[in-house]
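Action item from last meeting closed. Structure (430 res):
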């Protein structure tokens, strides 16, 4: 039995060696075949007889063959640098042709552009890693410096690939390309000292962020947001897309929380969003009932940061008015007129607070049995109607050609306070 096992082991070893030798022979033959394809094509290119279709076809064929050899793992170690050089050379010709089409706004295979670019940069890197530097007149030092320069240039092409893929709605590929560009010197440390992309990382992140939004890749969006916001020219659009994305995801709570944090931090820069959030909290307050108000709490936070935010005071006034807290509402509407003296709505609503208080008080008079108290209440009512007049008149000044906005209330106030001539004037306007 021991003898049989020994024979078996020797046989398997011989088989493994034979298989390796065959694989090495095949890989060498593949490399030679790919080199012949490239040499023949190069001669035609030099003679200017090669068509673009031929360049694309032959380079793809040669690339497929050399990549088989590389993937086999059977190439001799001292041949790897040469093999990767060939792979890079076979990728370069199609790359240049497609760049020409892009510059001329002509159609080309954007998917192949990206695939070919990845092959080219990988091959350039591996060529540098697997080629020993030699110096002197016959050395390769300057040649390899040129290869480093070529690899460094390719960072910009990943930005192009991101744009091409975005235009074709291949958003996952676009993000992959943009992320490679942003991390280029980490992925290719060989060129960290010379690689400089034509646009900064924050601008690339901006492109990637919007590609992620188009592709509804919200996790990617969130990861890119902080960097994209550093691109000042697009910061407003980036912020708007972030806000919209919460609603697209159906997450109104996250939307409100984001707006809350943003608007409290910088109220003056976000007044439109404060208005949106006021509408949201008004709805939430109605759902929660009268015992609590998210709106009042929110606008108080805003006002604490900047007391001159008009929409915050107006929203607070509206909430108080809706709750029939007319004294509180009046104070806020008056604050609005101080911030914006020509604000029709604030003047009108200030008067309406008094008007509503007068109406409410007037409705109680008939139930007061004590005539003295009833008369006092009537006089008080007239006084409050009178207090409303200056505010309605200021509203009139703000909208003089729109009597339908203020004439009715003024007629009532003038009638109750015994100013018949002015009441008649309002009648004519109505």
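Sequence:
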């Amino acid at each position: 039995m021991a003898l049989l096992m020994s024979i078996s082991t020797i046989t398997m070893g011989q088989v493994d060696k034979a298989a390796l030798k065959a694989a090495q022979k095949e890989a060498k033959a593949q490399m030679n075949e790919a080199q012949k394809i490239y040499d023949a094509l190069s001669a035609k290119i030099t003679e200017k007889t090669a068509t673009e279709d031929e360049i694309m076809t032959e380079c793809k064929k040669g690339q497929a063959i050399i990549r088989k050899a590389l993937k086999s793992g059977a190439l001799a170690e001292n041949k790897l640098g040469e093999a990767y050089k060939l792979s890079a050379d076979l990728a370069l010709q199609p790359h240049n042709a497609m760049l020409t089409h892009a510059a001329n706004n002509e159609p080309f295979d954007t998917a192949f552009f990206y695939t070919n670019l990845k092959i080219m940069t990988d091959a350039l890197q591996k060529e540098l890693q697997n080629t020993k530097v030699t110096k002197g007149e016959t050395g390769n030092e300057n040649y390899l410096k040129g290869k480093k320069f070529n690899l460094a240039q390719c960072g910009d092409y990943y930005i192009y690939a991101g744009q091409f893929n975005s235009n074709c709605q291949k958003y996952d590929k676009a993000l992959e390309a943009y992320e490679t560009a942003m991390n280029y010197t980490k992925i290719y440390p060989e060129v960290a000292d010379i690689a400089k992309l034509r646009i900064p990382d924050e601008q690339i992140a901006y492109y990637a962020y919007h590609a992620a939004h188009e592709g509804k890749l919200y996790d990617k969006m969130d990861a890119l947001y902080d960097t994209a916001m550093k691109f000042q020219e697009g910061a407003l659009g980036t912020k708007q897309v972030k806000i919209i994305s919460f609603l697209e995801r159906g997450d109104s709570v996250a939307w409100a929380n984001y707006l809350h944090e943003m608007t409290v931090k910088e109220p003056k820069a976000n007044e439109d969003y404060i208005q949106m959030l006021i509408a949201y909290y008004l709805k939430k307050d109605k759902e929660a009932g009268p015992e609590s108000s998210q709106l009042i709490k929110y606008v108080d936070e805003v006002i604490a940061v900047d007391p001159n935010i008009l929409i915050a005071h107006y929203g607070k006034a509206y909430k108080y008015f809706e709750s029939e807290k007319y004294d509180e509402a009046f104070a806020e509407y008056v604050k609005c007129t101080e911030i914006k003296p020509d604000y029709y709505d604030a003047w009108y609503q200030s008067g309406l607070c008094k008007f509503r208080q007068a109406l409410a008080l007037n409705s109680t008079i008939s139930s007061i049995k004590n005539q003295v108290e009833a008369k006092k209440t009537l006089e008080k009512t007239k006084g409050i109607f009178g207090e409303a007049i200056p505010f309605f008149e200021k509203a009139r000044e703000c909208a003089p050609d729109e009597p339908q906005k203020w004439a009715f209330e003024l007629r009532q106030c003038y009638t109750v306070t015994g100013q018949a001539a002015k009441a008649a004037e309002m009648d004519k306007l109505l």
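Note appended to the action item: The two ends are 120 Å apart (CA to CA).
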